[in-house]
Amino acid sequence: MCLHTISFWHHTVENNMDNNTLPSDYTQWLAEIKQRVAQARHKAVLAVNTELVCLYWQIGREILERQAQQGWGSKVIDRLGRDLREAFPDMKGFSRANLMYMRAFAETWTDFEFVQQAVGQLPWGHNVLIITRLKSADERLFYVQKALSEHWSRTTLEVQIKNNLHQRLPDIYSTLAQETLKDPYLFDFLGLGEDAQEREIEDALVRHVTRFLLELGSGFAYIGRQYRLEVNGDEFFIDLLFYHTRLKSYVVVELKATAFKPEHAGQLNFYLAAVDAQLKADDDNPTIGLLLCRTQNRLVAEYALSGIDKPIGVAEYELVRHLPENLQSSLPTVGQLEAELGDFELGD
């Protein structure tokens, strides 16, 4: 290689190094792009929310019109709900109760333009709260306007309705945009679940737990994930449902990404009772519940057995173990579950 060629090569490398150096305004530019992305996502979420609310209004309006013209009753609504759930299994908005809310929604707000421009900006949960808790048209309109102008969350809206805000007019601020991002009807409509990032973590954890239980080879048979139960017209979804062939029992698995809360035990017991009532055969044993909760430092895993005299005891975020000794040998121990899931990573 001649001297001229070597000199040219060094000059090219130096230029490339200079070209790869971040410009001085890069940090500011990145911040501006991130802000634009956040704004665009927010606009997209609000637009999709409006489409969902308008869709629900249209369905409700058609139910009203067809009932008036054809005179059919609740059996058609039940059939419609079943057919829509079969066609769109990832959407949770087609229970009988929610179809009746759609009907009431369309009956309450007859002006579709108002739906598009006003109540369509509120999450569906807000709208259900307004039409079910308030009887006066003026009161409903008042809370719609306040929820929009003050950016109320659903919890704040519920509290203000309960406290008769329209008679006191306090000054309250909240985050409607964040509430919209959490609205389960919206994200089910999009096919993303309650929150895309949280759903990704949940999906990975569910896959991990499912694989672990099945690989134990102790009799777990997989039934389904987000297993749907309908109780008195309302829908509920079990995280994981198994059947244990040796114990002849259904096994309900509930996963919580947070520390244990007392309401988790109540929810689990409700699922156990519902499975016993709807799925358990006469010769099956009572349904077993497994609750997995992640605390700040470790995983709390505990069994509860439907039909055992309790309540579940809670102390220092630890559950009292209630599984009878004659069943413990057929199920993974709390220690095994903690060891398996304590080091759980998203990519597992």
Could you please describe the fold and organization of this structure?
It is globular, with a radius of gyration of 27 Å. The protein is built from 15 helices and 7 strands. A 5-stranded mixed sheet has the order 1-2-3-4-5, with helices on both faces. Strands 6-7 form a two-stranded antiparallel ribbon. With 348 residues, the chain is of the alpha+beta class. 56% of the residues lie in helices and 14% in strands. It has 2 domains: 35-190, no CATH class; 196-341, Trna Endonuclease, Chain: A, domain 1. Keywords: Endonuclease, Hydrolase, Nuclease.
Keywords summarizing the entry:
globular, single chain, alpha+beta, YhcG_N, two-stranded antiparallel sheet, 15 helices, YhcG_C, Trna Endonuclease, Chain: A, domain 1, 5-stranded mixed β-sheet
End-to-end Cα distance, whole Å, is 52 Å
What structural category characterises the helix and strand content? Answer: alpha+beta
- In total, the number of domains comes to 2
Rg to the nearest angstrom?
Answer: 27 Å
Order of helices and strands: HHHHHHHHHHHHEEEHEEEEHH
Mean pLDDT equals: 76
Record field, number of beta strands: 7
Poorly predicted segments = 305-323
State which percent range the strand residues make up.
5-15%
Helix content: 55-70%
Major beta-sheet overview: 5 strands, mixed
Major sheet: order of its strands? 1-2-3-4-5
Shape, principal axes of CA atoms: globular
Task: Specify the number of helices.
Answer: 15
Brief write-up:
By secondary structure, this protein is α+β, with helices and mostly antiparallel strands. Helix content is 56%, strand content 14%.
